[in-house]
Amino acid sequence: MIERKDGKTILTTPVSADELKSIHIGDIIYLTGSLTTCRDVAHRRVVEEGRTIPVDVRDNAILHAGPIVRPLEDDKFEMVSVGPTTSMRMEKFEYDFVKTTGVRVIVGKGGMRENTERACKELGAIHCVFPAGNAVVAAVEVEEIVRAEWRELGMPETLWNCRVKEFGPLIVSIDSEGRNYFEEKKVEYNKKKDEQIELISKQVGFIK
Questions:
Q1: Is residue 114 part of a domain?
Q2: Is 188 left (phi over 0), alpha (psi -120 to 50) or beta?
Q3: C-alpha–C-alpha distance, residues 134 and 83, integer Å
Q4: Structural domain contains residue 205
C-alpha cells in the first residue's frame, strides 16, 4: 500500500509491482512494515548455493546492512545501529535474488547497475538509498526485531527481520521502469563538467 500522509509518501509492505509503478527515481519515500537485513553471504547462499531464504521477503523489503544488535532476555533483541552497507557488492547477485525471493524493495547505500536495473524492470522492484551516516537514526525507526535467522553467520550477516515505521528518508535510485537515478545524473553532471572545462581552458590557456 502507498499513501501520502503529512507530506510524506509512505510505502507499507506487502506491496505489489503495480503499486510501485507510481514511484519514480528521485522520489523520497518512507517504509513501514517488514524489513529484513540481507547482505553478501545471504545473497550468495540464495543465488550460488540455491538455499531457501528462511524469512519470507516476497512483496516485502530487504536492507543491505550489517547492524549492531543488543541481545535481551527471552531470545529478544534490540537494534542499536543499522547503517546501510554498499549496495554495489550485491550487484552481481541481485537479479537472481529478486527473481528467486520475490522481494520488492531493496534498500542500501550508493547506486547499483545493469543487473539490478534489469531486476527492477522485469520483476517489478525498486532500489532505494538510505542516507549514509545515520545508522542510529535508522535504528530508532526499527520498532521491533521480530526474528533472527542464519545466526551462525554472525551479527553482521544474520537475517534480522524487523518491523519498521516510516523508515527513511529513502531516495529512489532505480524504479520499476529500470531508470537509474545515479547513472542519469552522471550523464548530466559529466556534460556540465565538460562544458566548464572548455570554458576554463579558454580563460587560462595562456598559462604554460
A1: yes
A2: alpha
A3: 6
A4: no
Domain membership flag for residue 120: yes
Q: Which domain holds residue 8?
A: 2-181
Cell matching residue 113: 547497475
Count up the domains in the chain and report the number: 1
Give the pLDDT score at 143: 97
pLDDT tens-digit map of 58-69:
999 999 999 999
Q: Which run of H or of E encompasses 188? A: helix 181-204
Give 150-155 contacts, CB < 8 A, sequence gap 24+. Answer: 150/41, 150/42, 150/45, 150/54, 153/41, 153/42, 155/66, 155/67, 155/68, 155/69
The single residue of 24, 43, 64, 127 carrying the catalytic annotation is: 43
CA 41 remoteness from chain centre: 16
> Please, what's the b/e burial string for 25-61 (b: 16 or more CB within 10 A of its CB; e: otherwise)?
bebebbbbbbbbbbbbbbbbbbbeeeeebebebebbb
Query: Is residue 43 among the annotated active site residues?
Result: yes
pTM: 0.90
Question: 195 pLDDT band (50/70/90 cuts)?
Answer: confident
Q: Average pLDDT in the 175-198 region? A: 86
